């Protein structure tokens, strides 16, 4: 009898521990990010809907160790990440906090980029199926949480963009890796202009791996977490099935199809100045529109981004992230990032005063300094 009581007591203790563990997983990081175990799957919910699920340092510091733990956990076979609310998966990083830190010399200006890029690399090298449900706005930091994973599911609500050149930054979070690997010069076009892709176009461009109608996502998630053996093939097959069942906009052509030849021709140049010259000489409405868009962007950001993608095309993801950390710290020391955030996000006058104000003013010597190693301060992966 005493042995049976002891066994029952131990079972209750184990049950209490598992219940407590599940509660902790679901509540840590406050309400900004939620973790849940469902069967053999683990689910991350970005839970800042009023802020369009913008990624802050606290969220990064909770997601990273949880992903590392799940990667080693034999009871976790699959990770799903999604955003709360109706509007966004993740609209980007907490740029305002980074701006304030950079101005005051706070270490957040280093910590945010360093830890975000380490998280990006963790996703890019993850040893288990990782499914990002990018339903809604997906920009900047949200792209970093999704694009390097093995599966990215877009919906008709998905809005993808890398708009960093408009705020004096560059398309980071591994943009130097995935953008030059898109078809032709499409990645360079997206990086420089901040052009927005919507719905099925996100998949057609190669950013998403699948397209599933938004109303089917709840059923898809349920079927994914209930997979008895969620191997890469099994997950891919289920996503394929849901994609086949999603007929919305199936016959609608890629919105950039008619411009792809022009993009490949006009954005083929050995310098940023060469691209602008191509656009000005072309004379087409499309070319004129892109020239006008680029004229509003930070000249420093344009030149950094051009070289970033040119260099990143031949680098590994890890090498790109090391390069991008150097670039982030250069931007923190300059003018244009703070001025861009002021003009676009704070005062919203849309009239940034870039320094220098022209491409010609951004010298090769300055660019070399942006890409230079940081010694002991370099990103370590």
Describe the structure.
The strands form two sheets. This protein has a six-stranded mixed sheet with strand order 1-2-3-5-7-10, with helices on both faces. The chain has helices at residues 2-27, 57-72, 95-104, 108-124, 141-144, 175-178, 186-193, 200-204, 217-225, 232-244, 260-266, 272-282, 285-295, 299-312, 317-333, 336-346, 364-371; strands at residues 33-38, 41-46, 78-83, 88-90, 130-134, 137-139, 151-154, 159-161, 197-198, 210-211. Mean pLDDT is 93; it is low at 1-28. It is of the alpha/beta class and 381 residues long.
Structural key phrases:
single chain, 381 residues, alpha/beta, 6-stranded mixed sheet, 10% strand
β-strand amount:
5-15%
Percent of residues in helices = 40-55%
**Rg from alpha-carbon coordinates:** 22 Å
User: Which oligomerization state do the chains in this entry correspond to?
Assistant: single chain
Report how far the terminal alpha carbons are from each other.
55 Å
| Strands, total number | 10
The secondary structure category is: alpha/beta
Question: Can I get a quick summary?
Answer:
By secondary structure, the protein is of the alpha/beta class.
């Amino acid at each position: 009898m005493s042995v049976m009581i002891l066994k029952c007591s131990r079972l209750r203790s184990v049950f209490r521990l598992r219940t407590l563990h599940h509660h902790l997983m679901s509540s840590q990081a406050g309400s900004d990010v939620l973790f849940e175990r469902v069967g053999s799957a683990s689910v991350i919910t970005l839970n800042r809907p009023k802020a369009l699920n913008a990624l802050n340092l606290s969220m990064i510091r909770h997601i990273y160790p949880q992903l590392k733990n799940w990667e080693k956990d034999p009871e976790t076979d699959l990770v799903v990440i999604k955003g709360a609310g109706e509007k966004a998966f993740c609209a980007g990083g907490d740029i305002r906090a980074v701006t304030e830190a950079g101005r005051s010399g706070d270490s957040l200006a280093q910590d945010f980029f360093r830890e975000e890029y380490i998280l990006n690399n963790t996703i890019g090298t993850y040893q288990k199926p990782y499914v990002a449900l990018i339903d809604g706005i997906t920009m900047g930091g949200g792209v970093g949480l999704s694009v390097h994973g093995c599966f990215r599911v877009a919906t008709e609500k998905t809005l993808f963009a890398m708009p960093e050149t408009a705020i004096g930054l560059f398309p980071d979070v591994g943009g130097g890796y995935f953008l030059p690997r898109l078809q032709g010069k499409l990645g360079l076009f997206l990086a420089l202009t901040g052009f927005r892709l919507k719905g099925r176009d996100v998949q057609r461009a190669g950013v998403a791996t699948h397209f599933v109608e938004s109303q089917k996502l709840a059923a898809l998630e349920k079927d994914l977490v209930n997979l008895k053996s969620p191997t890469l093939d099994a997950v891919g097959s289920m996503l394929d099935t849901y994609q086949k069942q999603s007929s919305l906009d199936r016959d609608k052509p890629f919105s950039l199809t008619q411009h792809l030849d022009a993009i490949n021709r006009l954005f083929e140049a050995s310098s940023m100045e060469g691209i602008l010259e191509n656009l000005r000489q072309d004379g087409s409405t499309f070319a004129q529109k892109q020239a006008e868009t680029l004229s509003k962007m930070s000249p420093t950001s344009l030149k950094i981004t051009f070289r970033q993608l040119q260099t990143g095309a031949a680098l590994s993801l890890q090498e790109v992230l090391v390069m991008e950390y150097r670039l982030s710290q250069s931007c923190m020391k300059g003018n244009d990032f703070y001025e861009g955030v002021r003009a676009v996000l704070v005062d919203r006058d849309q009239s940034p005063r870039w320094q220098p104000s022209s491409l010609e003013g951004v010298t090769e010597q300055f660019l070399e300094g942006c890409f230079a190693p940081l010694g002991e301060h370099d990103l370590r992966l």
